[in-house]
Structures are given as structure tokens and as C-alpha cells.
Amino acid sequence: LLPHLEGRLGPDGTLAGVPGATVVGLPCVGMLHPELIERALAAGARGVYIAGCVPEDCQAREGSELLAQRLSGSRLPKLKRVAPGCVRLDWYSPVEVRRFLRDLRAFQGALP
After folding, report:
1. Close Cβ partners of 76 (under 8 Å, ≥ 6 residues apart)
2. Which ranges of the chain does DSSP label H, i.e. alpha helix?
3. What is the rounded distance in angstroms from the CA atom of residue 85 to the CA atom of residue 94?
4. pTM for this entry
């Protein structure tokens, strides 16, 4: 998905058309340690929206599933307790930019 956002990303990771959103790219969401989510929230982020590969298309084999298990608490390292609704994980094929942007805006709108 990230390569398809080119032209929409500022040099600081800001996303055109989505005020307040900052994109942090990783080769695979499975590399995202839950502590980084907790740190972002502690630093003032209202929410953390994670866009991962569709599990069946994960180029890193099981990265999407591993993160889902960590966020649900069924796999170590677990995401510690965070406010309900402030972390969301969704799956996208590389070309689903419109759906991603729509879902991200909806997530932002639902944040406390």
C-alpha cells in the first residue's frame, strides 16, 4: 500500500487530505512492536491506525497475523491496556488506496 501513497506523503510523513495523520512505513506490520503503539499514544497521538497486507498476501509470510495476535493479547509481546477504539488494524491489498483513506478518515472521526 505504501508505494501507492507516493505523491500524497509529505517529507515528514504527513498524508495529504487527512489532517493529523502521519504515516510510518515498515516493510511488514509484523515488525511493529506493541510498545511503539503505546509510546505513540503516550506522546499524544489520539489513535494508531495500522494498515497491513491481507494475511493471505503477506510477503513476509505471517507478519499480519502475528501483529493481530499481539494486539489481541494472544501472542507475546502483547499490547498493554489502551483505551478502547484508539488502535485499529485493517488489511488492504496494495491497490486499495481509496478504501484505506476512507477507513482512516472514519477511524479519525470516531476517536474520542
Report:
1. 70
2. 34-42, 63-72, 97-110
3. 25
4. 0.91
Give φ, ψ of 11 to 5 degrees: -65, -20
- How far apart, in whole angstroms, are the C-alpha atoms of residue 78 and residue 67? 9
| Cβ atoms of 44 and 51 closer than 8 Å | no
Category of 85 on φ-ψ map: left (φ > 0), alpha (ψ -120 to 50) or beta: left
The CA distance from 35 to 102, in Å, is 27
Type of residue at 3? P
CB 37 within 8 A of CB 78: no
| Grid cell locating 5 | 501513497
Residue-level pLDDT, tens digit, the chain, 112 residues: 888 888 899 999 999 999 999 999 999 999 999 999 999 999 999 999 999 999 888 778 888 899 999 999 999 999 998 888 999 999 999 899 999 999 999 999 999 8
